[in-house]
Structures are given as structure tokens and as C-alpha cells.
Write a structure and sequence with these properties.
single chain, two-stranded parallel sheet, 355 residues, mainly alpha, binds tryptophan
């Protein structure tokens, strides 16, 4: 009996400007994981179209996310980088999971409620089924670990529920075909075809807030461009945005607790710590008692040093359509070969003739 091979999968939606929050919260962790894991990083264009996307914008954003992956240091030869729609097995497995997941499970998803808003009758069916496609993304590769933000935890739980129900519903057939894999669930040894995938939420995945309002998340949809540092911003723009970031009139506190109730100060300290790869306490011990007029130039310099080279590389790569499209095509072919192995077994387990 074999056990599941450790494998990392994650996805980023191509829905417009990537910003500092996406970089620190996701992409930088993807880069770190590739040293000791097999990784598959996917630009999830099929998830993007659960909400309306202008076709030309979708193409542009897909190339931009890919360019950001590469510019940040993801190695598309050692690992796999591709866009989701190229690998039809994702949609196929999502359909199978639509028949495994229950309406009640999806009805509980908070992201659907948020995105659909008041007009639920008018939301796309795809927006409702979004989590089953996400489960398919992950389980098409029988990935064991998924780095995600806090907001995706519920979708990961659903992915585990789907895997578990599939494993239970088909347990006899899985055993008959000898396709069971042993795994530990807590203290218990169980056997199944799909792994119960773990989220990777630990590690420095800071919540990066708006530079104009420290109580709101940094967001691509904020009407003020000054509220975020885009991954495509040049050095001058990055420095200007840090200079113009909202603050309060107090100097920085000399203790971490002093940041409480000061969301803008807290956000800038968080960003500094994340970029410098140190703790917020260390930042406070360096800058405690100093004015923002001293702290901001230091932060601007650090942000430019860390981000401007990535931004420049990203602009260069995303302008080279032939190159980016070639990376996605090659990645897609490798991904499809992997996913097809899973699907061939899944079809057999279910009783779908096709192999
Ligand atoms: N839902 C994720 C997000 O919005 C994107 C995503 C799609 C994803 N499929 C995935 C993330 C699979 C991790 C694994 O951030």
C-alpha cells in the first residue's frame, strides 16, 4: 500500500491588478515552497468567469499573473505553471464533484453569499458551483497541501468533505480495483482514492490593508490607486504611494500593544516586517518612538528595493506574449498528462466507460 506523494497546488484568479497583498499573501509563499515540494501553480481563468470578465482584459490578466509568478521566481520548468482552462480534466472532475457535493454544503459557503450579494437569483450557476471546481483543481493532482489565505479555509474544508464522501461512496469499488491509498486522518489510518488535503495557512501571510484606510483590505477594486501598491508600479510610484499613505499624528509606539486602535500605523509596520522578513516586534524595536517622517522613507526604500525589480521583470515578461503563452502551453501539457491519470482512475471507479 502506497501513501500519497506530497504535492502542493494553488491557484490565483486573473481578475485585474495584482498588488502587494497578493504578493506577500500568496505568491511569495509559492516561491518559498518550491525548494522542498513538487508544486503546481495555476492561473484559474475558469474561476474568473464566474463573474463577468471583458475578454481582452481576461487575456491580459492571465498573462500578467503568469508573468508575476515567473518574475517572483517560480521555476516553471522544475514545477508546473499553466492556466486552468487548458486542462479540460478540471471541468470534467468538477462535474463529477457536482454530483458528490450536496446543495446544503454549498449553501453554507460564505464567499458565495458575499459575491452574490442581495441579488442571488441573478448570480451565475458557476459562482455557486465555484468550490466544486476548486476541489477539482486540487484533487485532479491528488495534491496534499494547498497554500491559501484565511478566506479560502472554508473551501478547503469542502474539498476534504468531497474527497471523503467520494472515498466512502466508492470504497468497495476502490478496494476492488486496488486503487486505495493509505493515509492518516488524525490518529486513524484510512484508505481512499483522494487525499484529505491540508491547507497551508501558517507562516508569514500578513493581512495587507489599504494605504488609505487601515481597516479595509488592500484591494484591486478600490477606486483609489493610492490605496494599493500594484506589482506593476515603478520605483517612483511605489515611493510616492508610501509617502502619501494615511497615518495618524502620533509617533510609532515603543511596544507592539501600542499599535492597537491605530490601524494605519499597524498596517505600515506589518508591511515593513513582511518585506524585511522580520517580526513586527523587531520593527517596533528599531522604530519605536520615531515619527512617520522618518519611518516612511525607510519603508519606501525597502519597498522599492524588494518590489521594483519584480515589477520591472513582470512588465518585461508580460509584454512578451509568445514567451508567456509558450510557458502556459508547455505547463498545460504536463498538467494534463498528470490530471488524465487521475481522471482515468476516477472514471473507472465511478463506472464511466471511457478508457
Ligand atoms: N479560490 C481561490 C481564491 O480566490 C483561487 C483558487 C481556485 C484556488 N482554485 C484553487 C486556490 C485551488 C487554491 C487551490 O483565492
Amino acid at each position: 500500500m502506497t501513501s500519497f506523494k506530497e504535492r502542493v497546488f494553488s491557484g490565483v484568479q486573473p481578475t485585474g491588478n495584482l498588488h502587494l497583498g497578493n504578493y506577500l499573501g500568496a505568491i511569495r509563499r509559492f516561491v518559498a515552497l518550491q525548494d522542498d515540494h513538487d508544486c503546481i501553480y495555476c492561473v484559474v481563468d475558469l474561476h474568473a468567469i464566474t463573474l463577468w470578465q471583458e475578454p481582452a482584459e481576461l487575456e491580459k490578466a492571465t498573462r500578467e499573473v503568469t508573468a508575476a509568478f515567473l518574475a517572483a521566481g517560480i521555476d516553471a520548468e522544475k514545477h508546473i505553471v499553466f492556466n486552468q482552462s487548458r486542462v479540460a480534466q478540471h471541468a470534467e472532475l468538477a462535474w463529477i464533484f457536482n454530483c458528490v457535493a450536496r446543495m446544503g454544503w454549498l449553501n453554507r459557503m460564505t464567499q458565495f453569499k458575499e459575491k452574490a450579494g442581495k441579488d442571488r437569483e441573478n448570480a451565475s450557476v458557476g459562482l455557486f458551483a465555484y468550490p466544486t471546481l476548486m476541489a477539482a483543481d486540487i484533487l485532479a493532482y491528488r495534491a496534499t497541501h494547498v497554500p491559501v489565505g484565511d478566506d479560502q479555509k472554508q473551501h478547503l474544508e469542502l474539498t476534504r468533505d468531497i474527497a471523503q464522501k467520494f472515498n466512502n461512496d466508492f470504497s468497495e469499488r476502490i478496494a476492488e480495483l486496488g486503487l486505495g491509498v493509505e493515509m492518516m486522518v488524525g490518529e486513524e489510518k484510512v484508505n481512499g482514492f483522494f487525499p484529505l488535503t491540508e491547507p497551508l495557512i501558517e507562516g508569514p501571510a500578513p493581512r495587507v490593508m489599504s494605504l488609505r484606510d487601515g481597516t479595509k483590505k488592500m484591494s484591486k477594486s478600490d477606486p483609489s490607486d493610492l490605496s494599493r501598491i500594484n506589482l506593476t508600479d515603478d520605483a517612483d510610484t511605489i515611493a510616492k504611494k508610501v509617502r502619501k499613505a494615511k497615518t495618524d499624528p502620533q509617533p510609532l509606539p515603543s511596544e507592539l500593544e501600542g499599535l492597537e486602535g491605530r490601524p494605519e500605523a499597524e498596517n505600515l509596520v506589518t508591511i515593513f516586517a513582511a518585506l524585511a522578513e522580520t517580526s513586527r516586534a523587531a520593527v517596533i524595536s528599531d522604530f519605536g518612538g520615531r515619527q512617520f517622517s522618518e519611518f516612511k522613507p525607510a519603508l519606501a526604500e525597502l519597498a522599492v528595493e524588494k518590489l521594483a525589480p519584480i515589477a520591472a521583470e513582470m512588465r518585461r515578461i508580460s509584454a512578451d506574449h509568445a514567451y508567456v503563452d509558450g510557458v502556459l502551453r508547455a505547463g498545460g501539457e504536463r498538467a494534463a498528462a498528470e490530471a488524465e491519470q487521475t481522471l482515468a482512475m476516477a472514471r473507472k471507479i465511478i463506472g464511466l466507460l471511457g478508457n
